[in-house]
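Reopening: structure tokens for the 4'-deoxy-4'-aminopyridoxal-5'-phosphate complex, inputs below.
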Amino acid sequence: MSKVWINGKLFDKDDAKISVFDHGLLYGDGIFEGIRIYGGKVFRLREHIDRLYESARHILLEPPLGREQMTQAVLDTVKANAKQDGYIRLIVTRGAGSLGLDPGRCSDPQVIIIVDDISLYPAKYYEDGLEVITSSFIRNHPNALSPRVKSLNYLNNIMAKVEGVRAGCHEALMLNTKGEVAECTGDNIFLVKHGILRTPPISAGILEGITRDAVIALARGDEMVVEEITLTRHDVYAADECFLTGTAAEVIPVVKCDGRPIGSGKPGPLTRQLRERFQQIVRQ
Ligand code: PMP
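Re-run output (same inputs, fresh job):
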């Protein structure tokens, strides 16, 4: 049975429990990271730890562990689960408190580390590409809780995901308050136009994806031109290629948006190249 780490102790999955008064449960008050294990090694752990502590800073949550201890706890949990390939869910909640929003009444932030298998999109979509729709739910305004905070409050994205699923799609595109392309419910988006790779800037109100950063670096290393630039739905409809990036998704082609085929309607050559290059770096 898989082992879950909670505040320094390992529990069998069925015994891993936290308080019903935890504000993570009551209000979505907490933060998390999704991280991959490839060949027994944790991919980009430092980047995930950095993002976790940035999210924590933003919401004035002090994790009970320092970065080094947190890093070690993740590695120890991976080891205890003897996982060669899998997924890590690292969570810090505000902890148990009284009813009422004030986090000042919460005394014990909980650190939870789950190591499990990852269910990616079904394999055929990596070959054939995904279809997406544009959701009517817009991405959170950056002046509300910033989308850069990877918080436990995903309900807005969940609503967009549900809309996509009900339309027969596995992902949904989210626009920002200006109607510009932001990202998908759990993935960043890239377009290819005339050989140039384009992705919305962080200022579009998106999560700064670690896979996004890795793909940008890979593409630049392969001498591709990469632009972080404002994109609209027109750019998506008129793109030559489109793909999504995310820790769980890796690099996955998108071949249709809102019923319109993108480019040839098949995964494009640059998408394939970047997917292969990404596979190489994670297996290194
Ligand atoms: N955007 C959102 C909203 C996400 O939740 C995620 C992570 N699932 C991503 C983008 C991709 O980020 P990363 O590459 O760091 O997993």
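The first strand starts at residue 3 and ends at 6. The chain has two domains: 3-116, 123-283. Marking as resolved unless the reporter disagrees.
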